[in-house]
Amino acid sequence: MGGEGCSFMKWSFTKFDDNCIINLPKDVFNKENIDILKNLIEELKDDGCKTFLLNMGQISKINDVGLGMILGLYKFSFYHEINIRLYNLQHYVSQIIFQTRLNIIFDICECDDEILTKVDSKVALVA
After folding, report:
1. DSSP assignment, residue 10?
2. Measured between alpha carbons, how far is 48 from 31 in angstroms, rounded to an integer?
3. Is the pLDDT of residue 1 over 50?
């Protein structure tokens, strides 16, 4: 598990190859936390990460502000030449994203996605 010794204490992440899973806290969708997330992503990008999977498992609700912040992250990723993918969406969050048709814009990982299979095999090798 990553995140040790960094200034992002409530953020946990796991790096593998040039990928990184960031476990988002449930209160991520405010200006301060989004700025912290962007700084963390920049730091990890400098460390060689190119694809970031945002684990949204702790987020059970989302509104227009949260959706707008995710859109902002996608714009951020475009300018920084990185990939951002969402995964582990709670039912309500997934429903809102699909109802607003933002699933066309957001890159959403499914459980059987190849990149997640790689993570599981790497974790199994470490255990």
Report:
1. T
2. 26
3. no
